[in-house]
Amino acid sequence: MNPPNQERRVVPPEAVDLESPGRRDYAVRFEHPTTWAYYLVPVTVLVGPGAEPDRGLVAIGSTHGNEYEGPVAIKTLLGELNIADVAGRIVLIPVLNASAFSAGTRDTPEDGGNLNRAFPGDAAGTLTQRLAHFVSARAFPHVHVVLDLHAGGRVACFPLLASFHRVADAAQAREMEAAARGFGTPIAGYYQDATPGLLTSCAERLGKITVGGEFGWGEAVNAAGVAMAKRGILAAALRHGLWRGTLPPPQCAPDAQVLCDSSDLGCYVLAPRGGVFEPAVACGERVAEGQTIARLHDFESIDAPALDLRAPHEGYIQSQAWGARVQRGQVVTIVAPECAWME
Ligand SMILES: [Zn+2]
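^ thats the input. predicted complex w/ zinc ion below
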């Protein structure tokens, strides 16, 4: 257990010890780009007696600073995980982008960078690039499971979902599916792998079992999302022999979980013009091809009827604009067709 009010050891990124047995609670320092100060990123390393080189799990929260379920879940685990129950290596980073988190913003205020577009990063770059480099260069070589916990922030709402990419290696793909199912979310989804600089894409190209997820939205804390985030970390740790313990029951039973695939950009419904977005269906709902999924209102033409936005195909509503005001070209809904689980 983590002693209350414990002072964390302040260290530079290169001094984090991921190999020695035991528990270490660090505040890893990243120099502020302009002020005589450091951002202190909490990193807890637990190494049990059965830890093997290159094998372990890292769980990361607050890659974006205004998403809260991952940080709350990992912060809770800091207090609950007992080193006596840890067999392998578990690395917990509840608040990776400490700068954005303290500002309550998605991106890093100092450089405007989106940390989830900055991987693998650069040790001599901006604050955002240095944070990415710490994870890819320091943490990744010591783990084989990477979990990156997101939420919708102000951008979108989601049915609570675990997400992962299609990868060519069959064994890696099977384990990624198993890790995704471990979160107990009602929906799990494949998603497109075209966006450059993603933490998850960087990890999976290194062969890591990599799962992300969206566990809430609206800059709030979704309690069910917190429970799912926490369970997903423990389920992966248990499956890979890193932790001994009893899993809490899943929020959604395995036989009720649905797998969707939004990899095809034809799943994305873009706003044809700016306006006020009125959803006509709920997140997570199954819709038919051609069904009205939202209406777009133009308040500059108060007497004009709303524009109907329709589902491009049958599938599940995997994401929806959260804020009322949307701009032309914005992804306002993702309709993801169901697909079969590998196992
Ligand atoms: Zn995010």
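The chain has two domains: 9-261, 267-336.
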